[in-house]
Structure formats: C-alpha cells, structure tokens
Amino acid sequence: MFAGHIGAGMLIARAEPRMNVGGFIFAALLLDVVLWLLVLLGVESVSIPADFGHTHQPLFSFPYSHGLPAGLAWSGLAGCGVWLAGSRFGSAKRRAAALVAAAVFSHWLLDVLVHAPELPLLGSHSAKLGLGLWQNMPVALAVEASVVLVGLCAFLPGSALPRGRKLWLATLALLLLAFTVAGMTLAPAPPSGAAMAASSLLTIVVACALLGWLGQGSGR
Ligand SMILES: [Zn+2]
C-alpha cells in the first residue's frame, strides 16, 4: 500500500492545521522508509516470489519496521521527536505529537488490513498478523482509493492553502493512487529485493518532498 497511507496522512492533517500536511504524510509512510532502509542495510528482507507477476506481492521479513512492538516504538519515537522540537505549537505540541504518532501507527493498521499474515505480533518467530485483503486485489484497491478520497475530502476544504496548491495536491495524490494501482496490477517483477527497496525509497522521498512543497502554507 502506498497511496492509502498518503490518504491517512491527509485525514489526520485535518486535525492540526499548523503543521505542513507533508509532515503527516511522511509520518504515515515512516514504517516503509524504515523498511526499505533496513532492507538496503541487510537487516530486513524482501523477496520476489515466482508468482509475483500474478500476485504482485513480495514476501517480507520485517520485524523491526512492521512488527507490532516496532510500529508502536516508531510511533512513540516520532511523537517524542515532535514534542521535543515542536515549540512552535506552543501549548498544543502534545496534541501535535499525538497526531504524528497516530499517523505513524495508521500505517501499521492499514498494512494489517491488506498484507498476508506476515506482520509479527512480537519478534520474527512470533505469530503473524495480516487480514490478506490483497488476495482480493480489486476490493483492496477500491478500499485504498476510498482512503485517498476520504483523506482529500477531509483535508482540502478546511486547509488554508491557496486554491492552486490544493488543486496540485489533489492531482498529485490521485496520480500516486494511479501509480499504486498500476504497481499492484501491471508492474513486472522487480529484478531483486534491493532494487525494489531502492526504487520504493526514492519514490517515497520524491513524493513526500513534492507533497510537502505543495503543502507549504498548510502549516499556519
Ligand atoms: Zn508498510
């Protein structure tokens, strides 16, 4: 899931107009940033199964980015970071920190919905969670598209952004949704897990940079 996390970030951004929406979107994608960095470092792994062309689902071993304790820990760390650095939020910085932590953890919840049972409840050898909605890809993509649309409809009307930036932000979010749909239906198998990690990380960084740039002015 990629665009769905962007939708969740926009939905949560509605609650804190003093912060750039791009910050919430990055928070909602943080667990994947950690995943791809750890894959490139050889700490976690992703493998491409022989039936990838049919399922479009790699196989993950990702206890330190997507385990339940890891998800909670990364959420807590991100929240603490905002709390420590968030003097501009004044008395509301505890709330801003809680919202950022919620954005980080929303990633884990959405991933549990779509992944096969592969998100560790504790460590690598513990029970794994995952409701496997990707087994029914059209439904999974419809749910993901709905999250994006709900996020856009929640964020845009109350945002202080100029109309032009709102339009570009919506266009980019919908383009990233189309990119996600293509990736989960048409894309060929990546040559390796490392190649997938590098391209995914680059995509997240570029998308968040663009969304954050467009979101300048959403933080009042
Ligand atoms: Zn993820």
In short, what is this structure?
The chain has 220 residues and is mainly alpha-helical.
Which residues sit in consecutive blocks of at least 5 with pLDDT less than 50?
Answer: none
State the helical fraction: 55-70%
Total domain count: 1
Structural class: mainly alpha
Instruction: Kindly report how far apart the N and C termini lie.
Output: 30 Å
The overall pLDDT average reads 94
Global outline: globular
Strand order, sheet with most strands: 1-2
**Count of DSSP strands:** 4
The helix-strand sequence is: HHEHEHHHEEHHH
Q: Ions, cofactors, ligands: which are bound?
A: zinc ion
How large a portion of the residues is in β-strands, by DSSP E? under 5%
The DSSP helix count reads 9
Radius of gyration: 17 Å
For the biggest sheet, the summary is: 2 strands, antiparallel
Verbal overview:
There is one protein chain. The chain is mainly alpha-helical. It has one domain (3-214). The chain contains nine helices and four strands, in the order H-H-E-H-E-H-H-H-E-E-H-H-H. The protein has a two-stranded antiparallel sheet. Helix 1 runs antiparallel to helix 6 and helix 2 (21-40) crosses helix 6 (93-114). The radius of gyration is 17 Å and the shape is globular. The structure holds zinc ion. Zinc ion binds at residues 31-32, 66, 107, 111.
Keyphrases for this structure?
two-stranded antiparallel sheet, single chain, 9 helices, mainly alpha, binds zinc ion, about 220 residues, about 65% helix, 4 strands
